[in-house]
UniProtKB/TrEMBL annotation:
Signal peptide bounds: 1-20
Organism of derivation: Novosphingobium aerophilum
Protein name, per record: DUF1501 domain-containing protein
Superkingdom as given in the UniProt entry: Bacteria
Keywords per UniProt: Signal
Amino acid sequence: MTMDQSRRAFLKRASMLSMAGGAAPFVMNLAAMGEAAAATASDYKALVCVFLFGGNDYANTLVPYDSTQYGVYRTQRAGLALAQSVLDPTVLRPSIPLASGAQYALTPGLAKLLPIFDAGKMAVMLNVGTLVQPTTKAQYNARSVPLPPKLLSHNDQQNYWQASGPEGATSGWGGRIGDLLQSGNGTSTLTCINVSGNAVFLTGKAAVQYSITNSGPIGLTARTSLNGSAAASTLLQSLIGGSVAGNHQFGTALGTIGSRALGLYTQVTGALAQAPTIATPFPAAADPSSSLGAQLQTVARLIAVSQQLGAKRQVFFVSTGRYDTHDGLGTLHPTLMTNLGDALRAFYDTTVELGVANQVTTFTASDFGRALTANNDGSDHGWGSMHFVLGGAVKGGRYYGINPTLANGGPDDIGQGRLIPTMSVDQYAATLASWFGVAASDLATVVPNIGNFAGSALGTNVGFV
């Protein structure tokens, strides 16, 4: 992209942010495209994306347990395969067994999620990944269908997962859901909230991604402190929104964004000060470098004050890393899984405590899965993977999707046990978006390739929520 193109793109985004920041009629009109119900809805719903950066190893997360699959699993990853006896306590017993007879167990680190699955509030997604359209192995080998760009590349596949587009995409499907539904919120900027920095997933065409830390809203950083002075704060807001802005596009965008940030800081800080005390403990992270539990606890606190914030629909993004397990999979991955299981269980229990379990749906995502075959003490980049969806509205206690045939060079494999996805991210996203309130006619706005899956085995709504 040239410098001129970059500048034009920035100006376009800045003007969008300017309009969105003031909840201008432009935003109201955009949101009205396919959503009349959310604007007058009396209920509350939240989607929470838990992104595992690096590419989670599918085979040591949802572990093959039946004798046929387990034999292949053990052979393909000598030294990394979990002992079948270790898996006995976490075997999944779904309400609808797989027709193939395949069985799976949760890795021991996810044991705390087993009661949620057994209670029918957690569903397992089989072989999810980035696709442009349904793809067979023959089509992949012949390159006779369009494929996601730069398969096995971290940056590109993270972006395709989050945005249905390559690296450089300017909006993600979480943000595009926000575009359609933010008019139902009292403060449109609190529709898409990131607790882990910044991600294209939450960037909309008009919806603004609001970042918050585990310590609360991000305050103004300056060389001098306002020392709690209301007069100084008012003067600063006047300067940011007035004389600094001027008539220049950059100045206008800076003034609008700065003024909005100051206002939101006060609004969110005030609401969180009234948040109820959460009794559910969030355990210390098994992986000390991860703040996933703390991020989810922050999300829970924001959900608890959603009424004070005037929110009816919110999309959250939390994340954790170190999932690029080329080395040390046998020692690192169990720690990552324990941390994930503990954090998800504490968050789900908190939604029950707050009385909003039926209104909050949490789902996992990652760059890609990994290869089945071991590479010394790790596994290499893959494609399809296994994921989890939790919440009171989830039709859980069962599998969704098509279980893959495990084999190096098998019918679902592009090499070394890298799975060709049989459930697309578009189908995964469309199902979540439909529950959230996006009309069927607007799904292509959220995930542009969804029409390619209308005639597939799973259709455009997988039905897990």
